[in-house]
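Annotated sample (chain length 153).
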Amino acid sequence: MGDLQTDQGESLDLQFVPVDEFRRLLDADLGSGPRARAFAALARINVLYMIAGAWSGHIGTSFSSLEIMSWLFLNEIRDLDRGPGACDLFFSSKGHDAPALYSVLIGLGLLDADKLHQQMAEAPKAPAEAAGEAVPILPTLDLTALPDVAFKK
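Output written by the structure step:
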């Protein structure tokens, strides 16, 4: 973003990929590899949108985790639809990849993008403000041990 950070002109008008586009991809007749790569590409657009919109974030951490995260959620993690306690556990020790996780969950229809944006606006501005307390961004995420994130749904 470099020099453009000080000039918020039309060139920074980023778009958010809606869940319907992810659904269209997931319903397409593709192999698991191409599907995961395309899913990660769509998720990257949403990560860029989230980080640029917040004017804060570690884009490299999120971008570098999206292939493996997309593969795991699309092909390996079982019983996501059964809810907490009934599905496989996803754990990431690098909390700076939270935008990637949010983007994957939005793409799978497990997280409402509008609710995410609302919760982000209401959340504490720094993790230190929430030390020792759960941050209620998502009902299926355990954020009590910041920056580690455990997905339980």
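Annotation: The first helix runs from residue 19 to 27.
Annotation: The first strand starts at residue 90 and ends at 92.
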